[in-house]
Amino acid sequence: MELVQCGQYLEAKVLLEEICRVDRVDAEAWRMLGTVCGQLGDADGAIANLRHAVELNPDHAPAHVDLGAALLSADRLEEAAASFRHVIRLDPSDYESLARLGRMLHSLGNLEEAAACYRKVLQWQPQWSAMYDSLGGILRAQGLIDESIASHRRAIEIAPNDAWAHSNLLLATQYLAEPDAAQIFVEHRRWADRHEQTLPRREWNNARDPERRLRVGYVSADFRTHSVPFFFEPLLANHDRSAIEPFCYAAVQNPDDVTARLQGLAGGWRSFIGLTGMQVAEMTRADGIDILVDLAGHTGNNALKVFTYKPAPIQVTWLGYPDTTGLSTMDYCLTDVLSDPPGRESFFTESLVRLPGCFLCYQPVAGAPDVAPPPALAKGYVTFGSFNHLPKLNTKVIALWAEVLHAVPGSRLFIKSLPLFDEATRERYYGLFDARGIGRDRVELTGHAATQTEHLDLYRRLDIALDTFPYNGTTTTCEALWMGVPVVTLAGERHSGRVGVSLLNAVGHPEWIAESPEQYIALAERLAADLPKLAALRAGLRAHLAASPLCDRKAFAAKVEAAYREMWRTWVRAQG
Fold this sequence. Notes:
alpha/beta; Rossmann fold; 7-stranded parallel β-sheet; 6-stranded parallel β-sheet; 25 helices; 10% strand; globular
């Protein structure tokens, strides 16, 4: 219809409604009416009219495609997936619909089925780099890290300039059971060599006053319900506004209450959804940002392209990623001496600024459930557990946890991680434990927690938390401590394997840090052997954490601000 092609949707809607009133069985007219309603923002009208179209002609694939798209726009993923399944039944060669189905299944947590969709698409379209990248993301979520890395590498071979796929490769390397620090650093530098911008000498108009109020910009897509705000909000809320004017540069797709709260705390708030890296760089330059802080590294939806343009005199990375960015334009990385001991400098392109104490400050969830007594008192056996991201549970972790269970007779293990919602993934992990002599009667795997409160409430089921390695937990460790659950960690060599060391020192429990697998087992045994002591520890752990440096927000903000000030003074001196 010409009116639709010309974008005259209101006029088209009037005409199509009349056609449908006169001819109630014209499936194509109903389909077009649904499409027009969608263009006009009437999601309910679009879905209703498209449903009528497919009822009139169940074999009309384009109507099912449009219905699936309308349901997807309304975030009704299960129904949208059903529509695209029907499309594929009608036309098994429709690889674009199969790819969309795969994305929906991935969002729904049906990982194995989503991976099967992507693999089938790649049979028809072997040069579709984005499919290899998406498949790599699913494989990472399933804990299949070597396969994930191979899939991301294939995406990069096909599309060498795909910075997203290259970042996803770097993220996958963080989960290797035996990481090669030197090789991982080389891979990060390779990202920078390929994606950093070649620009003329940079000039900034920022006033060269070493003691003036500084404009600090924070860049993230995670200013929402996410792990980042647990550690970022204490800093943002406690900045000395006479010394620091904080700006947030946000790429939040689905804002929520956390977004609104952070926006209220920021001196300036800029959304950059849909903008290019250069456009965002110009935005920060126009705002006169003195120090621009990356909170994502190479995690999903990162904005590292912004930092390649060096829009601010000083650029810093912190919090969201446990490694170097690889960028020559990133000046500093905020860390501490326990997470990155002396000697680690050669694995960073940034200069390491080691904050006194821990490089993190934790803000617990408001309204968290009360701490409960250790479940072992009622059940008669100790329950170990982990709520860490599933890719951190590599085969070495599984093997050591199995040894812990063998060492503590009758003990159980409870693991919660979102990818375990997928049956095939869950079965694979059960198999890993079974191969080490630990049956299903001693291991429970779940991916379910509908709300943050329900998630925290599940810590009531744990007596002792077991940290992952060589990639430690961060948020999960803090959550466990807040819910009264002690955490046993194994110290590693890289930043990702030493965060547990920093956190437990910050809360005054270095005795829970193991330096070897044998000591890890011994610590778990020792905690499990004395239930009265465990109960007393649990009863006081929340208050102990709240009073510790890990939760001292004002002190943390002050030491970060002192680091910013020294960076600024150094830069001013360098300008002559």
